[in-house]
Amino acid sequence: MKDQTIFDQFAKKGKGQKLRTDGKAVIYTRVSTKEQAENNASLETQLKYCKELANKKGLEVSEYFGGTYESAKSDERKEFQKMLNYVKRRSNVGYIIVYSYDRFSRTGANGAYISDQLKRQGIVTISATQEVDTSTSAGSFQQNLYYMFSQFDNELRRDKSVSGMQEKLRKGHWTGAYPFGYTNANPGKGKTPKFVITKEGRLLKQAFLWKANSNMSHVEIANKLQEKGLKINDKRLSVLFRNPFYCGLIVNSLIPGEVIEGNHQPMITKELFLKIHNLLNTGTETRKYCVDDENLPLKTFLKSTTCGTPYTGFIVKKKGLYYYKNRRKGSKENRSAKKLHQEFLELLETYKLKDKKFVAPLKEMVYDTFVSMNEEAIKETKELSSGIIAIEMKLDRLEERYVFEEINKSQYDRFRTKLVAEVNQKKKNLSKHSFDSSNLKKSINIALKYALNLPLLWSSGDIEVKRKLQYMVFPDGLGYDFQNKRVQTFRVNSIFAQIACLSDTLEGNKKGNFQNNIENSRLVTSTRFKLVTS
User: Fold this and answer.
1) How far apart are CA 162 and CA 158, in angstroms?
2) Is 23 exposed, middle or buried (CB count within 10 Å of its CB: 0-12, 13-18, 19+)?
3) Is 24 helix (H, G, I), strand (E, B) or coil?
4) What is the C-alpha radius of gyration for the chain, rounded to an integer number of angstroms?
5) Most buried among 64, 180, 358, 421, using CB within 10 Å?
C-alpha cells in the first residue's frame, strides 16, 4: 500500500504552542509621565511605527490601548491590564504590537513571564523597532533580554536619582512634598526651594507652644486649632510633633542615621522640640479628652482611699446622666457625677477666702508665715550671695596683680582656676536654695485672687480650666471614701493650705489682733514649698 494518508489520523500532535492565525492584533502605546504625554510627540511616533508594522505583516488592528502616561515600573497599569484582559477573552487576536519592548514592560523577569504566559495562549508580543522571531528559542531569549535591560535601565535611573536627592539632602535642601505648615516661595524645576511658614504653619507653631508649655493633650490642641480655623486630628499632630524639620533639621530614609542642619526657616527652637519630644516619651499622651470628659473632669483625678484605684466615668444614655465608677475589677462603686461634683465644690469652699477685706492682712500673714518657714533658706541665700561677691572681688584683685606683674602667669592660672571653681559651686548652690521674696509675693497674689473665687472658677471653667485648677490646689489628686461618700485630700498646695488655715482663724476671731494670728499661723505644719502657677 503506497498511499498512507489514511494513517494520518494516528499521527501524534505537537507539544509546542499553537499561535492564533486569524491575523488580528491590538496596539499598545504609552509614555511614563504626564509631562511627556502633554509635551512630547512620542505617542504619535509610537502609533505610526506600530501601524506600519501591522500593514507590513498584513495584520488587522482590532483595538488600540494606552495612548496616555503609565509608568512601567509596575505591571499593575490600568490601560495595560485592560489590554491583557481584552486579548485573553478574544480568541481571534494573536498579536500585541508595541513600539519597543520597554513600552510593554520595564519589570524584567515579570515582563518576560507575562509574555511567556500570553504565548502559551497563542498571543505573541512584537516590537515595531526591535523585531525578533519569538517562535524560536533564540528569539524568545533575545526578547527576554530586552525586558531585562529595561529593568536594569530603570535601576540605573533610580540610583542616579537617589544619589542626586541624597546630595541635596546633605546640603540642607529638602526634597519631596512640602512639610505641613510650609510653602515654596521659589517654585520651578531646577530651582532651589525656599520654604516659608504659612498661616497654617503659624497656628501649628502655637500648637507646639501649647504642648511644650502646658502639656495639653493632642485632642485638646486639635479642638483649639479647629476653633481657630485649622482642622487637624490628634493622630496627625502626634506625627508632626515628632518631625525635627520644624526645628530646622532634616532626617530622611534616603540618608539613614544622618541628621542634617537644614537651610529652611525653623518654626520652633531645638530646645522647644526636645522638650516636647521628652513629654511625648513619658506616656502622658495616654490621657486624652473626649466630649464626655467635659462632664467628668474628676476622672483619674479621684482615687479610691481603700485601694488607690482611679475613678473613671460613663453615661447612662437613656437618662443622659453621668456617673463616676471605680476602675477596680468587680467594683460596684458608682457615684452620680452631679453629687460628687457638689461634694468637691464643698471641699473647694474650705479653701476660699470668705471676704475681700481679709486679702490685705492675709497677704501679709501668709508672706510672714512663709518667711518664717524658710528662715534657714533665707540665711543660706544671704551667705552664698556674700560669698560669691567676696570671691569675685578676689578674682578682680588677682587679675590686677597679674596685670601689674606682681605674680606670674603660672600663679595667676593656678589661683584663678581654684577661685572660678569655688564661685561656680556657690552659684550652683544658690540656684538650688535661693529664696526669691518677689516671686513669693507674686505667687501669693495669684493664689489669693483664685482663692476669692475657687468654686465659681471651677464650675464655670471648661475642662482645661477645671483640670489645671484641680492640680494647682491638690497636686497629688484626691481620695474618695465611697462608704462615707467623702472626698479626702492627699496633699494641698502650701499657699492654699495657709489661706484655709489663716482665713478660718480670721473668720473665727474677727476682734482679735493680727499679730496673734500671725504667731498662731506659724504653728501650722510645714509642707513642701511649691509656688502657685497660673
Assistant:
1) 6
2) middle
3) strand
4) 41
5) 358
The pTM for the full model equals 0.37
Q: Cα separation of 300 and 479, whole Å? A: 10
Joined together, the cell numbers standing for residue 326 give 471605680
CB-based contact 248:261 (threshold 8 Å): yes
In 193-269, alpha helices (H): 199-214, 218-227, 234-241
The confidence band for 532, taking pLDDT boundaries of 50, 70 and 90, is: very low
Q: Looking at domain 195-286, which CATH architecture does it have?
A: Alpha-Beta Complex (3.90)
Please state, in angstroms and rounded to a whole number, the distance separating the CA atoms of residues 259 and 412. 43
How many Cβ atoms sit within 10 Å of the Cβ of residue 162? 11
pLDDT in tens, 129-182: 887 777 777 777 777 777 676 666 666 666 667 777 888 888 888 887 888 999
C-alpha cell at 402: 597679674
Sign of CA dihedral 96, 99, 104, 107: positive
Distance CA 159, CA 265 (A): 30
Residue 464 contacts residue 220 (beta carbons within 8 Å):
yes
> Taking the domains of the chain in order of start, what are their residue ranges?
24-156, 195-286, 294-303+339-353+444-521, 375-434
List CB contacts of 532: < 8 A, sequence separation 6 or more. 443, 446, 447, 450, 472, 493, 495, 496
Bridge partners (DSSP) listed for residue 479: 303, 488
Q: Which residue has the cell 520652633?
A: 268
CA atoms within 13 A on the CB side of 262: 24
Helix then strand then coil, % of the chain, to nearest 5: 55, 10, 35
161-to-30, 33, 166, 256, 365 alpha-carbon distances in Å:
22, 16, 9, 17, 74
Place of cell 490601548: 65
